[in-house]
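queue> holo job accepted (fe (ii) ion)
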Amino acid sequence: MPTARPGECIDTAPHIEEIDYSDLKLQVTTDRYYSPEYHEREREQLWMRVWQVAARADELPEAGDWMEYRIFDQSFVLVRGKDGQIRGFVNACRHRGNAFCEGKGHSPRFTCPYHNWSYGLDGQLLAVAKPDFDGTVEEFVGNKDELGLIRVPVEVFAGFIFINPDRNAPPLAEFLGEAGPVLEAFHLDEMVPVGMNVRETINCNWKVVMDAFYESYHVQAVHPELIPIMDLSKERYCRLGNHGATTVPFQGTDEAETDHSKQIEAFRNIPKPNFPGLAEVFPRFEELVASYSKPDGSLAFPEGISGRLLFQQAARESLTGKGLDVSGLTDNQMSDFEFWSLFPNVYIQLRAGESTVIIARPHPDGDPNRCYWRVAHYIWLPPEERDAQRTEMTDIPEGGHVPYFLALEQDFSQMEDQQKGLRNSSLTHMTLTRQEPKVAQFHTVLDCWMA
Ligand code: FES
Ligand SMILES: [Fe+2]
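queue> job finished
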């Protein structure tokens, strides 16, 4: 008996026309995108309480590696300890509050540059400078054990460092809920950024970015080149608590579903520069197709075999051959992308062995009309190849831009235009369609946090 695979809940989720919208809001207020008052409330109600991705764990590979994480006016330091664990602390010295870290670095301990108090990587106060005082530390300042750095919840999941500014936050696993096991099966923690790993400022609210990637309704207008390979009428939507995933099968039209050569053609037509991970599967796919071809070139598929199945088989074999454990993934997860919304601000485009992750967060300058976006493409590689192939993050200076691949450029240019429109105060609501379930879910969940 095959064991149940967590991704089956997505494979069997309702199709787009069967979705129950009864508890999802389709009218969304627009002041959330530009109003300073809303932004300030969002800071309090959402960002100061929610689990959020701060970085990748492989950005802090060694004990003593640290980095600052800022959200609004709050600053934290993430550090890998001598025991290998990543911890988070409030970036404020317990003496007179100096922010002792900025940017990124490596050190065996933290020393506050103001009066030289020093702290261990576990946050404990190690030493207090007392050059003109003869007595003990105790006499000088009180109980050292009570003056460690203030700890905040930090956990690593799927290779991402999650932080929660709320010191009483529930465990991350509780927040992730059913989404956790489905994501875990992909071994995202073993993937490394390859090719694209960029952070830049965009002139739009962070939610405009999330909206743009949480629906495929815009494909017909913005990415017409994808229409022949993705049949959006077959899109499925699976709600997983605060989070959600949709998926669309590769293969194209209804005709391709019944006509083997059309289905194979649809796979061959996948634009490979957009999908480098899929491109790797093609050599084995062509071998498998050839093994079922007659000398005249026609196909002799026995009952139950299809181009789609062969593609999935080729992907499973290629990835297993590289050393990735795909036993927890379904056949559809071999060929089709899942489009995840991880509340509040993570989009993951995910398939066995690869993913593209987009994270948008409010700009630290406090302007609701701007945000940081971070986009990276991750590939699963055998451990010995990871360091050589890893692409470090490029931080694009203000006003700069790197050209992305076609589909991403198309999305990128759309977002600033949407922000411009949303800022018109006469437009009080957006009206969502029944082809945007994740956008509706995102705003419905957000409204709950804001209430
Ligand atoms: S504020 Fe850090 S040592 Fe004084
Ligand atoms: Fe898009």
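queue> The chain has two domains: 8-49+178-259+320-450, 52-159.
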